[in-house]
Amino acid sequence: MIMKIGNKEKILYLLVDKKIKPTKFMDIYRQNRGNMNKTFEHFLKYENLKLNLEEGKRNNDNTEISMHKGDRYEYFKIIDFVFKNKVDLLCIGDDGYPDILKQVYSPPLLLFFKGNKIKEMEFGIAIVGSRKCTAYGREAAGYISGNLSEMGITVVSGLAVGIDSYAHKAALEGKGGTIGVLGCGIDIVYPPENKLLYDEIALNGSIITEFFPKTPPLKSNFPVRNRIISGLCRGVIVIEAGEKSGAVITCEMALKQDREVFAVPGNIFSPASRGCHKLIKSGAKLVERIDDILEEFSQYQENLRLCSNYDHKDHMKPHARQDTGIQGNEARIYEFIGYRAKSVEEIVKYSKMEVKEVLGILASLEIKQLIREDSFNKYSRLF
Amino acid sequence: MFFKLDSFTLVGINAIRVSVEVHLSRGLPEFIIVGLPGKAVNESRQRVRSAVINSGFDFPVKKIIVNLSPADIKKDGSFYDLPIALAILAASGQIKCDISGGSCFVGELSLDGKINPVKGLISMAEEAQKLDKKFFLVPYEIASQASFISGMDIVACKHLSEAVEAFTCRESIGKFICRDKIENISNRSNHYDFDFSDVKGQLKAKRAMEIAVSGRHNIMLIGPPGSGKTMLARRAVTIMPDLNLEECIEVTKVYSLYEKYVNRLIHERPFRNPHHTISRAGLIGGGINPRPGEISLAHKGLLFLDEFSQFPKNFIEDLRQPLENKEVIITRSHLSYSFPCNFMLIMATNPCYCGYFGDESRKCTCSQREIQKFWKKMSGPVMDRIDMRVNVARLPERSFINTETSENSNKIKKRIEKCLRIQNDRFKGKNISYNSEVGIKIINEWLKNDKKIRDLIYTISGKYNLTARGTVSILKVSRTIADLEESGIIGENHIIEAINYRVGYGCNPGNNF
To answer: Mutate which of A377, A379, A380 to disrupt the B interface (most B C-beta within 10 Å)?
Structure first.
């Protein structure tokens, strides 16, 4: 196999070699106005860079590499991995490398990816949030993500459990699609319970990472990853975040990168929404409806033209359910159950009915999707 | 010089007759027991010798051979002290038997001649009744255990000399006969120190308990620490209907195998609450000489497995077969033993490792993976046999001092008794007796003519993603709810209520994500 040596291979070699820092590379790259050839010439001339990229010895069956030592070995291992596992590479000068990502201070020079969404993405919004979300967060993530995707906006998130996975799941169904940014090597599915979701996104969306294959999901990788999540997007929406949460870090990153920050408010009693409320207090935009997000991006009408014929008013779920069509005791109990959870005991006391009747009514309201069990034996209204 | 008496040995829960044969012959003084005696039987030689001497008789200086027939069954235990002593005295001509043919004997001797209790007395009494015996000589302390077996006299003796008196003189036997059975069995009242009305709040869980007991549905209580799971389970016995005489005898049979000093007929519903460090033989039954385990001790009553998730996984698998068959068969190379275990299962567990999943005021610190791991331990097949799963939430502090009175156990018990009667009528002639035992065939018959109900079931199973077993459970529970209301057919409201006890926030937290 004779491999064409292009920019990707050169950059991969630089990253493996580690002699030149990515930020240094970006400086020179920017000085040369994005011309890759000139950038490399500069390094070869002034920085004593040697690119030993010619093929080493290979076995007859064209698979094994031998006789490579040190960095060169590492380099060929990765090239081999990429070749074998149908993983693609995207480097900073390539067509399809998102322009918006180039604008951040230290963009990833090289991305490993699966699925082509990353190249086609026109307009991205990130949805981030707690891994331990409540039922409310789940629903909010699904609602916002689904609607954004339906409008042709790509939803970017981190493929973690909780809010991330609900956002991904909902976005997969729309035409905007979704991109998952990993904090580990592309061959590692972390957390493992997201395997199915990972496969589906790799097929219909995009999985990207800047980490080399087989990198474990180290704690320190995630803030690094978060900069790509916010970097890929025009705005970041936080749905449920604890006080000290990764989502809040992503928002700080987003502000440095000059991105919009949105936060979805929660129940004032819920510890899961503390971070969101903190963000709102310090100036993040409160999101109640999809319009709240779109307003901020009126200057990007051009990018959003895809959704011009999309009447999102129809999708305003919470406001379309005014007429519930329930009567009698059901309606009475439904009225009593507020947006703050009420326990079965409270409901029985209020309604002066027998427990069995109350339980029946609660179950039938649940089947009609009007209420939901929030915590043990406590119900609250959905709409 | 030969003499023969009847006694018993235990095989599992049942007794079989053993003849104690004594032959005195000339020769060097010797005392031999044959017929596969165990350690305790062999040692009875020393006890018998001392007891005989200390009761004022002579121990014959002869070659004594005792045979326990049938000779090919292993015998263990101290049942034979009294019959051996009496047989030796009779064979040596010191006393003359007056009641021999229609009587049988069991008892352990103390060195001074006192008669000590033995295990399994009531099973032996039952066997004696079958053999048409007239008198059964038993240790005084536990005589009332067996006194409810009708058709023969239980002769209770404190001492070997009393036993000799009864043995030799038919007229004097009257003063030893145990007369406990004259007390009317229906007079006994079950008194518990606790009552269902002690439980404040927890309306859903209480209602669920009532339904579970009514239809004998196995139930799982899920809730954070301190939410009252144990309290609820403990009180479930107070709403179970009283045992009838037959059931009392069955329960006493199991308990008399387990401990010696059962000095009465047990008439409360058993409530067993084994700790999760229990061994396998302790739970299911077993040992070299198999003994009943906790599941058999819970026969006709409640088995409560607290902290269900802490029990080793294979123990939980072991419960599968007994749950289906209502008996457990323990096989050893020489014999198979069967113990009854018709119990209702209540399980309690926290919803996750830290225990606070789904709690309102305290945040759960478990990750999703931990919660899934926690629930993975619960075996699918066992979970399938649990018809009802109920959340028990912690109460806010103020409700403990709530003065509202709720229904007491007796009131609930009356409803349940009525419900059980309906079920008995329905299943007459079939070999099932509770709603929880019905199969899919009978359920389909119930729903044959009701299209509306069938549609509702399709909606529900679609919405909640129920398995076939889950749907069947809901239907069984709704049948019980209908029975509680004395309704002949299952209505929509019954099914909708039953949903509450199968799906819900904590009913399977592992799948909640």
So the answer is: A377
Contact call for B207 and A359, based on CB within 8 A: yes
B472 φ, ψ (degrees, to nearest 5): -60, -40
CA-wise closest residue to B227 among B390, B403, B411, B412: B390
Residue A191 is nearest to which of B203, B369, B399, comparing CB atoms? B369
Q: Tell me the nearest-neighbour CA distance from B481 into chain A, angstroms.
A: 9
What is the per-residue pLDDT for A303?
56
Is residue B357 within 8 A of residue B366, CB to CB? The reply is: yes
User: Would you say A254 and A156 are in contact if contact means Cβ atoms under 8 Å apart?
Assistant: no
- SS3 call for A52: coil
Binned at pLDDT 50, 70 and 90, residue B506 comes out as low
Sign of CA dihedral A105, A106, A110, A112: negative
Residues ≥6 apart with Cβ < 8 Å to B201: A345, B395, B399, B402
Instruction: Look at residue B453 and tell me whether its pLDDT is greater than 50.
Output: yes
Contacts of B372 in chain A (CB under 8 A): 193
Q: Do B203 and A344 touch (CB under 8 A)?
A: yes
CA distance B269 to B298: 8
A347 to chain B, closest Cα gap in Å: 11
CB-based contacts of B171: which residues, under 8 Å, 6+ apart? none
Are B496 and A360 in contact (CB < 8 Å)? yes
Distance from A55 to chain B by nearest Cα, in Å?
45
- Nearest residue to B239 via CA among B483, B407, B12, B127: B407
| CA-CA-CA-CA torsion sign (A326, A332, A334, A335) | positive
Q: Let me know: does B389 contact B358? Beta carbons within 8 Å.
A: no
Compute the distance between CA of residue A29 and CA of residue A11 in angstroms, rounded to an integer: 12
Residue A181 to residue A126: CA distance in whole angstroms: 10
CATH number given to B196-430: 3.40.50.300
| Interface predicted TM-score of the whole assembly (ipTM), two decimals | 0.80
pLDDT 10s digits, A255-271: 999 999 999 999 888 88
Nearest to B439 by CA among B469, B402, B414: B469
Beta bridge partners of A89: A112
Q: Which residue of B has its CA nearest to A372?
A: B505
* A131 contacts in chain B (CB < 8 Å): 367-368
Q: Which of B201, B360, B497 sits opposite A375 (nearest CB)?
A: B360
Q: If you count residue pairs, one on A and one on B, with CB atoms under 8 Å apart, how many are there?
A: 82
Chain B residue numbers with beta carbons less than 8 Å from the beta carbon of A132 are 364, 367-368
What confidence tens digit (pLDDT) does each residue in A311-347 have?
Answer: 444 444 444 445 667 788 888 888 888 777 888 888 8
**Measured between CA atoms, how close is B499 to chain A, in angstroms?**
7
Residues of A in contact with B394 (CB under 8 A): 376
Closest CA in chain B for residue A139 = B513
A-chain CB neighbours of B399 within 8 Å are: 345
* Residues in a beta bridge with A236: A126, A261
Per-residue pLDDT tens over the stretch B397-421: 665 556 566 788 888 999 999 999 9
CA-nearest of A334, A183, A337 to A250 is A183
Domains B2-182 and B196-430 belong to one CATH topology: no
- What are the sequence ranges of the domains in chain B? 2-182, 196-430
Q: Domains (ranges, CATH) in chain A?
A: 7-84 (no CATH), 117-319 (3.40.50.450), 321-381 (1.10.10.10)
Q: What is the 3-state secondary structure (H, E, C) of A300-327?
A: HCCHHHHHCCCCHHHHCHHHHCCCCCCC
Closest CA to B209 of B342, B383, B387: B387
Residue B500 to residue A162, Cβ atoms within 8 A? no
- What class, spelled out in words, does domain B2-182 have in CATH? alpha beta
Strands B271-272 and B302-305: parallel
